[in-house]
DNA sequence: CAGTATCCGCAAAGATACTG
DNA sequence: CAGTATCTTTGCGGATACTG
C-alpha cells in the first residue's frame, strides 16, 4: 500500500505543469516513474546498460556494491516495465544478456539531463547544506 | 568500497556519461541528487512551489495525502539544500511562506523534462507491465 | 553462470497528540 | 497557523544459503 494511492477531492493546480497532471486515479506520471526508477539501483543499471548489452555477472561487477538479490530484483522490475530486455542463450553454463529497449534508451535522455544538473550543482548543494548546518548550531 | 578496483575485467565506462562519474569517494552526482529529491514528496513540493510561493497549510492542502510531519520534514530538507527559502512574518497568527530559490527553480527544468517523458510514456510502461504480467501467469 | 529462497535490521513514512 | 514530539508500521535492501 502506498501513500499516493489517495484518490480524493480537492484538485491542486498541478495540472499546469507537464508531467505532473493527475490522472483519473489521482496519480501524477512523474511520481509513477520515480517510483519505478527512483530506487537505489535502477538508474545505475540503466546507465551501465546504455553503454552496451551486458551479462548478469559482468553487470554485477560493474555496479560496485550491489547484491545479487538486488540486481535480480532491479532487472526484473526494469524488464517488467519494458525498459530492459533479457535474452537467454541455452548453453552450459547459461548465458543471459541484458540490454536496454528503445524505451530504456529514451529514458536515459532526460535522466542524463538531470545528471548534468546534478554534476553542475552538487557543489552548490553541498555549500548550502553546510551553510544551513552551521547556522543551525 | 572503491569503484575502480576491478577496472581490468569489466570496465564500467560510467565516466563517459555526464552526471554519472564517480567522485573521489565513489559516489556519482545523480545518485546524490536522487537521494535528496527522489523521495516521496520532494518533487511534489518543488512543483507546487514553482507556481508561486505558498504558505504551509496551503501547501499541505495542495499536496493531497501528505502528512503534516512529512511536509515539515521535506521542507526542512529542501531548505537545507538551498532549494527552498523559508520566510517568517511574525504576525499573530504567524505567517510562514515557502518559495523556491534560484537553485530550486533551476532543478525544476530537468525535472520537467523527466515529467514530459513520464507523461508521454506512462501508457507504454503500463502496457509493457501488463504484457509482462500476463506472460508470467 | 545465473539465478531463488529466507530471514532480518533499519530507516522512511504514517498516525496521533500536543504547543507557541 | 505552523509547527514539534512520540509511537508504530512498512518495506527496502543486505546477508546468507541453496539450485538447475
UniProtKB/TrEMBL annotation, chains A, B:
<dbReference type="Pfam" id="PF01638">
    <property type="entry name" value="HxlR"/>
</dbReference>
<dbReference type="InterPro" id="IPR036390">
    <property type="entry name" value="WH_DNA-bd_sf"/>
</dbReference>
<protein>
    <submittedName>
        <fullName>Helix-turn-helix transcriptional regulator</fullName>
    </submittedName>
</protein>
<feature type="domain" description="HTH hxlR-type">
    <location>
        <begin position="28"/>
        <end position="126"/>
    </location>
</feature>
<keyword id="KW-0805">Transcription regulation</keyword>
<feature type="region of interest" description="Disordered">
    <location>
        <begin position="1"/>
        <end position="24"/>
    </location>
</feature>
<dbReference type="GO" id="GO:0003677">
    <property type="term" value="F:DNA binding"/>
</dbReference>
<keyword id="KW-0804">Transcription</keyword>
<dbReference type="InterPro" id="IPR036388">
    <property type="entry name" value="WH-like_DNA-bd_sf"/>
</dbReference>
<keyword id="KW-0238">DNA-binding</keyword>
<dbReference type="InterPro" id="IPR002577">
    <property type="entry name" value="HTH_HxlR"/>
</dbReference>
